[in-house]
Amino acid sequence: EDQVTQSPEALRLQEGESSSLNCSYTVSGLRGLFWYRQDPGKGPEFLFTLYSAGEEKEKERLKATLTKKESFLHITAPKPEDSATYLCAVHSGNTGKLIFGQGTTLQVKP
Amino acid sequence: EPEVTQTPSHQVTQMGQEVILRCVPISNHLYFYWYRQILGQKVEFLVSFYNNEISEKSEIFDDQFSVERPDGSNFTLKIRSTKLEDSAMYFCAKARASDEQFFGPGTRLTVL
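C-alpha coordinates for the assembled complex are given below, as produced in the milestone run.
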Protein backbone atom coordinates (compact mmCIF):
# COMPACT_ATOMS: atom_id res chain seq x y z
CA GLU A 1 0.00 0.00 0.00
CA ASP A 2 1.33 3.43 -0.95
CA GLN A 3 2.18 5.51 2.08
CA VAL A 4 3.65 8.89 2.98
CA THR A 5 5.05 9.83 6.40
CA GLN A 6 6.23 13.31 7.33
CA SER A 7 8.39 14.42 10.21
CA PRO A 8 8.45 16.28 12.43
CA GLU A 9 4.74 16.94 12.97
CA ALA A 10 5.53 20.44 14.20
CA LEU A 11 8.60 22.64 14.00
CA ARG A 12 9.30 25.98 15.66
CA LEU A 13 12.14 28.08 14.31
CA GLN A 14 13.51 31.49 14.99
CA GLU A 15 13.62 33.82 12.01
CA GLY A 16 16.79 33.05 10.08
CA GLU A 17 17.23 29.58 11.59
CA SER A 18 17.51 27.10 8.72
CA SER A 19 16.09 23.57 8.95
CA SER A 20 14.73 20.64 6.96
CA LEU A 21 11.42 18.80 6.77
CA ASN A 22 11.35 15.10 5.94
CA CYS A 23 8.95 13.09 3.79
CA SER A 24 9.38 9.31 3.65
CA TYR A 25 7.40 7.40 1.08
CA THR A 26 6.66 3.90 -0.11
CA VAL A 27 5.03 3.66 -3.51
CA SER A 28 5.04 1.10 -6.28
CA GLY A 29 6.71 3.04 -9.08
CA LEU A 30 7.13 6.71 -8.23
CA ARG A 31 5.55 8.95 -10.86
CA GLY A 32 5.93 12.16 -8.97
CA LEU A 33 6.43 13.56 -5.47
CA PHE A 34 4.79 16.87 -4.67
CA TRP A 35 5.23 19.51 -2.03
CA TYR A 36 2.38 21.82 -1.12
CA ARG A 37 1.99 24.66 1.35
CA GLN A 38 -1.29 24.95 3.24
CA ASP A 39 -2.34 27.96 5.26
CA PRO A 40 -5.09 27.54 7.91
CA GLY A 41 -8.52 27.15 6.33
CA LYS A 42 -7.12 27.26 2.77
CA GLY A 43 -6.47 24.82 -0.02
CA PRO A 44 -3.03 23.33 -0.66
CA GLU A 45 -0.81 25.61 -2.74
CA PHE A 46 1.54 23.87 -5.17
CA LEU A 47 5.27 24.31 -4.55
CA PHE A 48 7.33 21.61 -6.30
CA THR A 49 7.21 18.40 -8.29
CA LEU A 50 10.12 15.93 -8.19
CA TYR A 51 10.26 12.91 -10.45
CA SER A 52 13.55 11.09 -9.98
CA ALA A 53 16.19 10.47 -7.32
CA GLY A 54 18.81 13.19 -7.28
CA GLU A 55 16.47 15.85 -8.56
CA GLU A 56 16.42 19.22 -6.77
CA LYS A 57 14.19 22.27 -7.14
CA GLU A 58 14.37 25.70 -5.55
CA LYS A 59 11.99 28.55 -4.98
CA GLU A 60 13.04 31.53 -2.89
CA ARG A 61 14.01 30.17 0.55
CA LEU A 62 12.79 26.64 -0.20
CA LYS A 63 14.70 23.78 -1.78
CA ALA A 64 13.28 20.30 -2.34
CA THR A 65 15.40 17.20 -2.86
CA LEU A 66 14.54 13.59 -3.63
CA THR A 67 16.10 10.19 -2.97
CA LYS A 68 14.68 6.75 -3.63
CA LYS A 69 13.02 6.63 -0.22
CA GLU A 70 12.51 10.19 0.96
CA SER A 71 12.34 13.84 0.13
CA PHE A 72 13.53 16.83 2.07
CA LEU A 73 12.24 20.37 2.06
CA HIS A 74 15.06 22.64 3.14
CA ILE A 75 14.16 26.07 4.44
CA THR A 76 16.99 28.57 4.43
CA ALA A 77 16.82 31.65 6.65
CA PRO A 78 13.04 31.41 7.12
CA LYS A 79 10.82 34.41 7.70
CA PRO A 80 7.58 34.58 9.71
CA GLU A 81 5.60 34.52 6.46
CA ASP A 82 6.93 31.01 5.82
CA SER A 83 4.79 29.80 8.74
CA ALA A 84 2.33 27.23 7.34
CA THR A 85 1.72 23.50 7.09
CA TYR A 86 3.87 21.82 4.45
CA LEU A 87 2.34 18.79 2.80
CA CYS A 88 4.09 16.03 0.88
CA ALA A 89 2.19 13.80 -1.55
CA VAL A 90 2.89 11.08 -4.10
CA HIS A 91 1.05 9.97 -7.20
CA SER A 92 -0.57 6.58 -6.63
CA GLY A 93 -2.03 4.27 -9.26
CA ASN A 94 -2.85 5.22 -12.83
CA THR A 95 -5.38 7.98 -12.31
CA GLY A 96 -3.08 10.55 -10.75
CA LYS A 97 -4.65 10.48 -7.31
CA LEU A 98 -2.44 11.92 -4.60
CA ILE A 99 -1.62 10.22 -1.32
CA PHE A 100 -0.76 12.86 1.27
CA GLY A 101 1.29 12.79 4.42
CA GLN A 102 -0.06 14.35 7.58
CA GLY A 103 2.02 17.47 7.11
CA THR A 104 4.60 19.43 9.08
CA THR A 105 3.34 22.60 10.75
CA LEU A 106 6.07 25.20 10.69
CA GLN A 107 6.06 28.24 12.93
CA VAL A 108 8.72 30.88 12.39
CA LYS A 109 9.05 33.43 15.18
CA PRO A 110 10.47 36.90 14.56
CA GLU B 1 -6.24 34.96 -10.23
CA PRO B 2 -7.24 31.63 -8.70
CA GLU B 3 -6.85 28.48 -10.77
CA VAL B 4 -9.97 26.95 -9.26
CA THR B 5 -12.95 28.48 -7.48
CA GLN B 6 -15.32 26.65 -5.17
CA THR B 7 -18.75 27.54 -3.84
CA PRO B 8 -20.00 27.87 -1.23
CA SER B 9 -17.07 28.65 1.02
CA HIS B 10 -19.02 27.33 4.01
CA GLN B 11 -22.09 25.10 4.04
CA VAL B 12 -24.03 24.23 7.18
CA THR B 13 -26.60 21.47 6.86
CA GLN B 14 -28.69 19.16 8.96
CA MET B 15 -27.88 15.46 9.10
CA GLY B 16 -29.73 13.58 6.37
CA GLN B 17 -29.93 16.55 4.01
CA GLU B 18 -28.45 16.65 0.52
CA VAL B 19 -25.64 19.04 -0.29
CA ILE B 20 -24.04 20.00 -3.59
CA LEU B 21 -20.54 21.44 -3.61
CA ARG B 22 -19.44 23.26 -6.74
CA CYS B 23 -16.08 23.73 -8.39
CA VAL B 24 -15.22 25.90 -11.38
CA PRO B 25 -11.84 25.26 -13.01
CA ILE B 26 -10.78 28.58 -14.55
CA SER B 27 -8.89 27.13 -17.52
CA ASN B 28 -9.19 23.94 -19.50
CA HIS B 29 -7.85 20.84 -17.83
CA LEU B 30 -8.64 17.20 -18.38
CA TYR B 31 -8.37 15.69 -14.91
CA PHE B 32 -10.49 16.65 -11.94
CA TYR B 33 -10.40 15.44 -8.39
CA TRP B 34 -12.24 15.79 -5.09
CA TYR B 35 -10.42 15.46 -1.81
CA ARG B 36 -11.53 16.01 1.76
CA GLN B 37 -9.73 16.97 4.93
CA ILE B 38 -11.30 16.30 8.30
CA LEU B 39 -10.10 18.84 10.85
CA GLY B 40 -6.60 17.96 12.02
CA GLN B 41 -6.25 15.00 9.64
CA LYS B 42 -4.65 14.21 6.30
CA VAL B 43 -5.97 15.31 2.96
CA GLU B 44 -7.80 12.23 1.60
CA PHE B 45 -8.58 11.32 -1.99
CA LEU B 46 -12.26 10.84 -2.81
CA VAL B 47 -12.64 10.55 -6.58
CA SER B 48 -10.94 11.28 -9.88
CA PHE B 49 -12.83 12.30 -13.02
CA TYR B 50 -11.50 12.16 -16.57
CA ASN B 51 -13.24 12.56 -19.90
CA ASN B 52 -16.58 13.00 -18.12
CA GLU B 53 -16.29 9.71 -16.29
CA ILE B 54 -15.16 8.56 -12.88
CA SER B 55 -11.72 7.02 -13.31
CA GLU B 56 -11.14 6.02 -9.70
CA LYS B 57 -12.91 6.33 -6.37
CA SER B 58 -11.84 5.64 -2.82
CA GLU B 59 -13.57 3.55 -0.19
CA ILE B 60 -14.92 6.78 1.28
CA PHE B 61 -16.78 7.52 -1.96
CA ASP B 62 -19.77 5.27 -1.34
CA ASP B 63 -23.29 5.35 -2.82
CA GLN B 64 -24.06 8.57 -0.94
CA PHE B 65 -21.56 10.46 -3.11
CA SER B 66 -21.78 11.38 -6.78
CA VAL B 67 -19.93 13.71 -9.14
CA GLU B 68 -21.04 15.46 -12.29
CA ARG B 69 -19.80 17.92 -14.85
CA PRO B 70 -23.23 19.10 -15.93
CA ASP B 71 -22.36 21.91 -18.32
CA GLY B 72 -18.74 21.38 -19.28
CA SER B 73 -17.46 23.95 -16.83
CA ASN B 74 -18.84 23.32 -13.36
CA PHE B 75 -17.77 20.19 -11.51
CA THR B 76 -20.01 19.15 -8.64
CA LEU B 77 -19.85 16.79 -5.69
CA LYS B 78 -23.19 15.70 -4.27
CA ILE B 79 -23.71 14.05 -0.92
CA ARG B 80 -27.22 12.63 -0.85
CA SER B 81 -27.80 12.12 2.85
CA THR B 82 -25.19 13.81 4.98
CA LYS B 83 -23.82 12.29 8.17
CA LEU B 84 -22.05 13.93 11.06
CA GLU B 85 -18.78 12.35 9.93
CA ASP B 86 -19.04 14.09 6.55
CA SER B 87 -18.07 17.35 8.27
CA ALA B 88 -14.78 18.35 6.66
CA MET B 89 -13.11 20.69 4.17
CA TYR B 90 -13.77 19.52 0.61
CA PHE B 91 -11.23 20.46 -2.04
CA CYS B 92 -11.56 20.32 -5.78
CA ALA B 93 -8.37 19.97 -7.83
CA LYS B 94 -7.50 19.95 -11.51
CA ALA B 95 -4.55 18.76 -13.57
CA ARG B 96 -3.55 18.58 -17.22
CA ALA B 97 -2.14 15.07 -16.92
CA SER B 98 -0.18 13.16 -14.33
CA ASP B 99 1.48 16.31 -13.11
CA GLU B 100 0.86 18.93 -10.48
CA GLN B 101 -2.68 19.35 -9.25
CA PHE B 102 -4.03 22.81 -8.49
CA PHE B 103 -6.41 22.99 -5.59
CA GLY B 104 -9.33 25.26 -4.94
CA PRO B 105 -9.82 27.17 -1.69
CA GLY B 106 -12.20 24.51 -0.38
CA THR B 107 -15.73 24.30 1.00
CA ARG B 108 -16.12 23.84 4.71
CA LEU B 109 -19.05 21.47 5.28
CA THR B 110 -20.57 21.38 8.74
CA VAL B 111 -23.21 18.72 9.41
CA LEU B 112 -25.31 19.27 12.52
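Chain B touches chain A through 28 residues (CB under 8 Å). Residues 6 and 105 of chain B are 7 Å apart (CA to CA). Further analysis is deferred to the final report.
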